[in-house]
């Protein structure tokens, strides 16, 4: 039986419960027999994998590997995944580098099939590296089975501070976020932007996001979210707005909370 997180509450109250209990719930998941078997299998098999073909041919290894990067939705797209892996990331024109979603780039670089004569699967620390990500992502996937809002919030808490800490321009950081669909959704929802926002010119999207961000947080930078207080405020807005969208407009707890946030 797969792990089912305990989420007895909804909305922002449910998010608070999840955060208070997350360490205990993650420990329960990691101790589950199905999780232990997956990790043991990966440790035993991955070091013997030398090519992308071998990886995509092993359904269990492929599932664990894709989940570690939040790409499990591509499990049945084996030819596509093989091309991503074989193209690597060191060549400018490789498929992984061309795709807007940079999780594919991270995935390809992590395995190194297309970049090195000896792939990174042969490094003795490689199983620990991938399985640490697998634990985090598989927990988020389990949470997403009950609340996609909470899954997106957990992902944002982990990913946005990493982008914020990069030594690159603010515009480059905005492009990274816009190229990551889950992070894009969190920002758009938190700032009250419609899904159609993604259809406008990319530079215009950045301009609008900066303006909205400055109005909401006092700064138009991504760097500000290296501050945990700012990050918590962003996630709070996202969860409350998501709750409001689900319940519809009106005098709901979420709408009242949003009104207070605007003051």
Describe this structure in words.
With about 260 residues, this protein is mainly α. It folds into two domains: about 10-135, Orthogonal Bundle (AGR_C_984p-like), CATH 1.10.3700; about 150-260, no CATH class. Helices cover about 65% and strands about 0% of the residues. The protein has 14 helices and no strands. The protein has helices at about 10-30, 35-45, 50-55, 60-65, 80-85, 95-100, 105-110, 125-145, 150-165, 170-180, 180-190, 200-215, 230-245, 255-260. α5 (about 80-85) crosses α7 (about 105-110) and α9 (about 150-165) crosses α11. The chain is globular, with a radius of gyration of 20 Å. The mean pLDDT is about 90.
Which helices and strands appear, and what pairs or packs with what?
Layout: H1 11-31, H2 33-45, H3 52-57, H4 59-67, H5 78-87, H6 95-98, H7 103-111, H8 126-144, H9 148-164, H10 170-178, H11 181-190, H12 202-217, H13 228-247, H14 253-262
Relevant terms:
263 residues; mainly alpha; AGR_C_984p-like; 2 domains; 66% helix; 0% strand
Instruction: Tell me which oligomeric state these chains represent.
Output: single chain
SS-based structural class?
mainly alpha
Assign the CATH class of the largest domain.
Mainly Alpha
Strand content: under 5%
Tell me the overall shape.
globular
Count of the domains: 2
How many DSSP-defined strands?
A: 0
Number of helical stretches of at least 4 residues: 14
Order of helices and strands: HHHHHHHHHHHHHH
């Amino acid at each position: 039986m797969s792990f089912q997180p305990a989420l007895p509450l909804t909305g922002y109250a449910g998010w608070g419960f999840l955060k208070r209990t997350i360490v205990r719930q993650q420990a329960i998941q990691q101790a589950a027999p199905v999780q232990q078997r997956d990790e043991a299998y990966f440790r035993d098999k991955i070091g013997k994998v030398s090519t992308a073909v071998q990886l995509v041919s092993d359904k269990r290894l492929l599932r664990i590997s894709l989940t570690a990067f939040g790409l499990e939705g591509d499990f049945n797209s084996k030819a596509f995944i093989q091309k991503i892996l074989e193209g690597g990331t060191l060549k400018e024109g490789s498929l992984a580098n061309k795709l807007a979603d940079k999780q594919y780039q991270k995935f390809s670089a992590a395995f190194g099939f297309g970049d090195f004569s000896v792939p990174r699967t042969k490094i003795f620390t490689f199983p620990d590296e991938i399985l640490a990500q697998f634990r985090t992502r598989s927990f988020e996937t389990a949470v997403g089975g009950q609340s996609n809002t909470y899954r997106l919030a957990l992902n944002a808490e982990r990913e946005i501070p990493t982008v914020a800490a990069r030594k690159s321009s603010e515009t480059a950081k905005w492009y990274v976020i816009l190229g990551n669909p889950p992070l894009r959704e969190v920002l758009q929802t938190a700032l009250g932007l419609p899904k159609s926002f993604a259809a406008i010119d990319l530079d215009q999207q950045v301009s609008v996001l900066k303006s909205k961000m400055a109005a909401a947080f006092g700064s138009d930078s991504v760097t500000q979210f290296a501050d945990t207080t700012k990050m918590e405020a962003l996630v709070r807005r996202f969860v409350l707005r998501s709750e409001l969208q689900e319940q519809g407009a009106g005098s709901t707890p979420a709408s009242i909370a949003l009104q207070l946030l605007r003051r």
